[in-house]
Write a structure and sequence with these properties.
The structure is a single chain. The chain has five helices and nine strands, in the order βββααβαβαββββα. The protein is an alpha+beta fold. The protein has one domain (14-153): Glutaredoxin. A seven-stranded mixed sheet has the order 2-1-5-4-3-8-9. Helix 3 links the parallel strand 4 and strand 5 (90-93). The N and C termini lie far apart (30 Å).
Length: 154
């Protein structure tokens, strides 16, 4: 698994959102956006992270920055998760974890002192030119959205 560095070209992606519409990197040409990878819908850490990104959407929008969440979950789970917590940004499905792997957000990690293979909670800010501007790996869910926002406004 190779990690992305600041200054790298963002790996291309084309994934279905909760409504089955394909969202791709090309859709964001000329725009800055946040793409974050998380393990599963409606689990404690992932819920906290998603709700905090959702709570900050107004501030992200003021900066012209869209937010995308990506997990291995399918559209049905994404719809239920969005509905339960009134999430208003797109959640993309990467069931084969290929996009996650290309961003270094899937692979070996430590969990409760054991090596496991899974989703590595990670966040990236992609610039209007498709270049990675900021990278976070091994994210602690609580407070992370505020950290991303702070980095964007500093």
């Amino acid at each position: 698994m190779s990690r992305l560095e600041i200054g790298a070209k963002a790996p291309p992606f084309a994934l279905a959102n909760q409504a089955g519409k394909t969202i791709s990197l090309k859709d964001f040409a000329g725009e800055r956006f946040v793409i974050y990878f998380y393990p599963a819908d409606d689990t404690p850490g992932c819920t906290k992270e998603a709700c905090q990104f959702n709570d900050g959407l107004g501030a992200f929008r003021k900066l012209g920055v869209k937010v995308l969440g990506v997990s291995p979950d399918g559209a049905e789970k994404h719809v239920a998760f969005r509905t339960k917590y009134a999430l208003t940004f797109d959640l993309l499905s990467d069931p084969e974890k290929k996009v996650m792997a290309s961003y270094g957000a899937y692979g070996e990690k430590m969990m409760y002192g054991k090596k496991v293979t899974g989703v590595i909670r990670s966040t990236f800010v992609i610039g209007p030119d498709g270049i990675v501007e900021h990278v976070w790996y091994g994210v602690r869910a609580d407070g992370h959205a505020d950290k991303v926002l702070a980095r964007l406004t500093s």
